[in-house]
């Protein structure tokens, strides 16, 4: 499997699905598009997802503004909705704590703006 981020993890690089030993088992989620090696971190035991810069939550949930590959970023956005976390922490903006899975899915499914207000 190709590493998704040039971040040293033990003896190698992080790859999609890798477990990092913190937060009772954090999982790496490869979310390319913003940059080729962008990652999110999912803490399934705690129901928390960190999206990195793939998704922003500044008053509304939306695809990050700058993306090297927009179609890939949109696909990554949709992928981040799959774990159905209870709390989503964005690289920019306020955390999402209410109806998180539904808001992520609705935002990811929008055609152009990919935006649903929250807060």
Shape: globular
Give a quick account of the main beta sheet: strands, pairing sense, barrel closure. Answer: 5 strands, mixed
**Which regions have little confidence, pLDDT < 50, spanning 5+ residues?**
111-119
**What is the N-to-C succession of helices and strands?**
EEEEEEEEHEHE
The count of domains is: 1
Helix percentage: 10-25%
Q: What's the total helix number?
A: 2
Proportion of strand residues: 25-35%
Class inferred from helices and paired strands = alpha+beta
How are strands sequenced across the largest beta sheet? 3-4-5-6-9
Total DSSP E strands: 10
Can you characterise this structure?
This protein is α+β, with helices and mostly antiparallel strands. It has one domain: 4-Layer Sandwich (Metallo-beta-lactamase, Chain A), CATH 3.60.15. It is built from two helices and ten strands, in the order ββββββββαβαβ. A five-stranded mixed beta sheet has the order 3-4-5-6-9, with no helix packed on it. It has a three-stranded antiparallel beta sheet with strand order 7-8-10. A hairpin with a 3-residue loop joins strand 7 and strand 8. Helix 1 packs antiparallel against helix 2. The longest helix has 12 residues. It is globular, with a radius of gyration of 13 Å. The C terminus is likely disordered.
């Amino acid at each position: 499997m190709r590493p998704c981020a040039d971040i040293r993890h033990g003896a190698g690089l992080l790859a999609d699905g890798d477990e990092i030993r913190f937060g009772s088992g954090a999982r790496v989620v490869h979310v390319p598009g913003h940059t080729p090696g962008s990652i999110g971190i999912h803490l399934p035991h705690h129901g928390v997802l960190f999206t990195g810069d793939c998704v922003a939550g500044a008053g509304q949930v939306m695809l990050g503004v700058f993306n090297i590959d927009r179609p890939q970023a949109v696909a990554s956005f949709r992928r981040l909705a799959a774990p159905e976390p209870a709390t989503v922490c964005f690289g920019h903006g306020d955390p999402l704590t209410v109806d998180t899975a539904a808001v992520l899915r609705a935002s990811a499914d929008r055609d152009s703006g990919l935006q649903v207000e929250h807060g």
